[in-house]
Write a structure and sequence with these properties.
This protein is mainly alpha-helical and 311 residues long. It has one domain: Up-down Bundle (3 helical TM bundles of succinate and fumarate reductases). The chain has helices at residues 2-13, 17-45, 51-61, 64-92, 99-126, 137-158, 178-191, 196-227, 234-241, 247-276, 280-307. The N and C termini lie far apart (50 Å). Residues 165-179 have low confidence and may be disordered.
């Protein structure tokens, strides 16, 4: 717990500029999307128990607090996807990693994210059937502005906090001091050869992240803008997966989304654990729990996708 508190304090006090906040929001958005994914896999698994249990759970999702969380999920997906795309481009096109160009790309990315989120978030709430958001553009706009203002408010308030003292590179670099961490990582790489396993994980994160930009955003767009949350129930699952023409495609699509998103997310959790948990025994315990959770959820999701039969 102490490392987490120290990290949060350092993130708020360190003057890392746009790069620091791009990293911090990227990590927070990724963890938020992963949390929703875990919940989503569990509720889809309940489809195996029949329409009664499944439709009753979906009714809870349509309550107004979950509507706000769905809009927050849209922000998390858009930011994590577009910021991830910027990182991928900078990794493979070195000139884009220069400080001046990276800063411009970040502001362009923020602008695109803000515009898409504002339009999409307001649309999702205004066309919701439940009160108080349905046909209420003023309240919908206030919710969207509030979600956007949250990270901006944290960044603004942090500028009022006393700046962190410069950390020495001989200290632990996982305390939120962005620039020192980067310099220590670069210096460490110069001392040791590249680990093939880490290189493969790095490459997988880039490839899977690029694929998920399309897989995840298209899935969200389809479910929330084309069909709409109110149209999703047990009969919708039957129509989608049991269709004699498109059923196999949707099952394969959902399986690819399940495997790539969950594996990508769990590698992200691994980075978080290794950053903030320094007790080796606890680190191994948490990493083992994350792997077991990933395996269990992939099995649960794949079981539903492959065996679902409404007959």
């Amino acid at each position: 717990m102490a490392p987490l508190i120290q990290t949060a304090s350092s993130v708020l006090r360190y003057r890392g500029g746009a790069g620091q906040w791009a990293w911090a929001i990227h990590r927070a958005a990724g963890l938020g999307v992963l949390a929703f994914l875990l919940l989503h896999i569990v509720d889809i698994f309940l489809a195996t128990f029949g329409p009664g249990v499944f439709d009753e759970l979906l009714f809870i999702y349509k309550a107004w607090p979950f509507r706000i969380l769905e809009v927050a999920l849209l922000f998390g997906l858009l930011y994590h996807a577009l910021n991830g795309l910027r990182i991928i481009l900078a990794d493979f096109i070195p000139m884009l990693a220069s400080r001046s160009i990276a800063r411009k790309l970040f502001y362009i990315q923020i602008t695109i994210t803000g515009v898409l989120f504002a339009v999409g978030g307001i649309w999702m709430l205004v066309f919701a059937k439940e009160e108080p958001f349905g046909n209420n553009p003023v309240l919908a706009t206030l919710v969207v502005v509030g979600i956007i203002a949250l990270p901006l408010g944290v960044a603004l308030l942090s500028s009022l906090a006393p700046a962190s003292a410069t950390l020495g590179l001989d200290r632990d670099t996982s305390t939120g001091n962005y620039q020192d961490s980067v310099e220590a990582i670069v210096r460490g790489r110069q001392r040791r050869p590249m680990n093939r396993q880490e290189l493969n994980i790095w490459l997988f994160m880039r490839v899977s992240g690029f694929l998920l930009i399309f897989l995840a955003l298209f899935h969200f767009f389809l479910m929330h803008f084309i069909y709409g949350v109110d149209a999703i129930d047990f009969r919708f699952i039957i129509f989608r997966w049991m269709d004699p023409v498109a059923g196999f495609f949707w099952r394969a699509y959902d399986l690819a989304l399940l495997v790539f998103s969950l594996t990508h997310g769990m590698f992200g959790v691994r980075y978080v654990i290794e950053d903030y948990v320094h007790n080796r025994a606890l680190q191994v315990f948490l990493l083992g729990g994350a792997v077991l959770t990933e395996i269990a959820l992939i099995i649960m999701g794949a079981f539903v996708i492959f065996t679902f039969n409404a007959v």
